[in-house]
Amino acid sequence: MQSVMHCSLLLILLGQEGHGQKTEPRGGTGGQELFRGQDQYDFAIVLSASRQECFWHFAHQSGRFYLTYMVQWVTGIANNRHLSTSVSSPQGFLVTIAEDTTGHINFQTEETGFYQMCFSNIHNKFGSMQVFLNFGVYYEGFEDAQKKKEQEDQHLNDTLSTIEESVNKLQGQIIHIWRHYNFARMRRGADHYLLLSNYSYVNWWSAAQSVVIIMAGYLQLFFLKKLFHTDTKKPCC
């Protein structure tokens, strides 16, 4: 009887001990840290009148978050090319806000999570606009920490370490080159749409002026005929 009681108490204690363990996931498998890579996106969106569009992008702490945008074309009456842009932290706090046709936003991420980017066409009540976006996140220095950890675990030689460091630097430079290339694409696209808009404007304005000139000539001829004719259809002079 005593042995049964001892077994019951032991099972109760084990059950309480297991229930008190934490069930939250760890940072990575095998005690390793989460991988911090870099990714970037570039695409165009069309915002109708008074419309707002929001996007979310994930970033780890101590990263560099960048956002570049440009308004390429605007339609409607009394159009305004200014775009209202805001970036918020994962906790919902406003990081930065901008009101311009072209913007470059770059800041250090202080917390891990999804950063919100909102683009609003509030200045146009009756017109749409197309906006080209290029955003992403990159990390400077995480390669060094990862390299030190690998050196302590695997004892890499100096040659491989030098090659790895060179490749990491080259990768960072490629990211910056890609950002400048995307901005050049934005500028080229904006110039293309401006050229099409000016071409259409010149054609419509020329057609309108031609119609006005023809109508003015017809009215002048009509009134001149009225001056030289009477009710009896005999010339006045």
Question: Roughly what fraction of the amino acids lie in strands?
Answer: 25-35%
Which stretches are low in confidence, meaning pLDDT under 50 for 5 or more residues running?
Answer: 1-35
Please give the order of strands in the largest beta sheet: 1-8-3-6
CATH class designation of the domain at 37-193? Mainly Beta
Element order: H for helix, E for strand? HEEEEEEEEHH
Roughly what percent helix?
A: 40-55%
- Tally the helices: what do you get? 3
Average pLDDT, all residues: 76
Number of strands: 8
**What's the oligomerization state?**
single chain
Main pleated sheet: 4 strands, antiparallel
- Derived from helix and strand composition plus strand pairing, the structural class reads alpha+beta
Question: What is the terminal separation in angstroms?
Answer: 144 Å
CATH topology of the domain at 37-193: Jelly Rolls
CATH architecture of the domain at 37-193: Sandwich
Radius of gyration: 34 Å
Domain GOLD: 52-137
Subcellular location: Endoplasmic reticulum membrane; Membrane
InterPro entries: Emp24-like, GOLD_dom
Family: Belongs to the EMP24/GP25L family.
